Amino acid sequence: MKLTTTMKDIRAAGPCEDGWEKLLKHMNKTHTEAKHDDTEFSLAVVLESNGLEDALWVLDNVIQNRRICTLFAADCAESVLHIFEAERPNDDRPRKAIAVARNPNATSGDMDAAGAAAGDAARATMAAWAAAGDAARATMAAGAAAGDAAWAAADAAGNAAGAARAAWAAARDAAWAARAAAGDAARATMAAGAAAGDAAWAVKSKRLAQYIEHGEAAAQMPWPEMEEA
Q1: pLDDT tens digits for range 85-108
Q2: pTM here?
């Protein structure tokens, strides 16, 4: 299935006004023109114009390819899984949630159960970190990063009815995990941690671009390289 759309279809799906105005400007269309414009164009145009969140919304609500949304979310979660497993090496719930998300035969019940289990793992991680109190100040970022990594897995296995939301949440949590991990590893400034998060977010946009170009086959491809933060 080609990941293409039209201005007419996007408008009919009820986009947010800010996002719609941004796309209109990028496409050089008036409201009247766009409302009736059924010329197909690639989802890559929305990604370039509006960014990752709006592109995922169009993918889910207009193109309605929730399989790609779910695969993308699983990729985002897996990209920071090592952070969680370094903190909790005997807890495989997030890893299992990612596997369920990728399984094309998984039922909604399977997805919900796996997502809930990964969420429990995230809560357990954050609770253990909080209970350690002042003695764990040195590992604060590591604990936060591990929790965010587990939440990314939980989002990836979320109910398919919220595929775009789940994909965006997984990407966000994965970026936060990368940001927190970078700050802890280097004991760096907040600005350095923010730069790491921004770089992680940017590479996730490039990962979605791979899915737009190659479809489900992108799941077997290596990630684009992350630029230096």
Answers
A1: 887 889 888 888 888 888 999 888
A2: 0.81
DSSP the chain: ---EE-HHHHHHT---HHHHHHHHHHHT--HHHHHT----EEHHHHHHHH-HHHHHHHHHHTS--HHHHHHHHHHHHHHTHHHHHHH-TT--HHHHHHHHHH-TT--HHHHHHHHHHHHHHHHHHHHHHHHHGGGGGGGHHHHHHHHHHHHHHHHHTS-GGGHHHHHHHHHHHHHHHHHHHHHHHHT--HHHHHHHHHHHHHHHHHHHHHHHHHGGGGGGSPPPPPPP-
* Rg for the chain, CA atoms, rounded: 19
| Helix 52-61 with 163-186: angle, nearest 10 deg | 150
| Model pLDDT for residues 164-207, shown as the tens digit of each residue | 666 666 676 666 676 666 655 444 444 444 555 577 778 889 99
Q: CA 140 from chain center: how many Å? A: 23
CA distance 104 to 109: 13
Residue-wise pLDDT tens digits, 5-38? 999 999 999 999 999 999 999 999 999 999 999 9
Instruction: Indicate the domain borders of the chain.
Output: 4-61, 69-211
With beta carbons less than 8 A apart as the criterion, state whether 175 and 192 touch. Answer: no
Q: 5 pairs with which residues across the strands?
A: 41
Q: How far apart are CA 205 and CA 184, in angstroms?
A: 25
* CA–CA gap between residue 77 and residue 150 (Å, rounded): 8
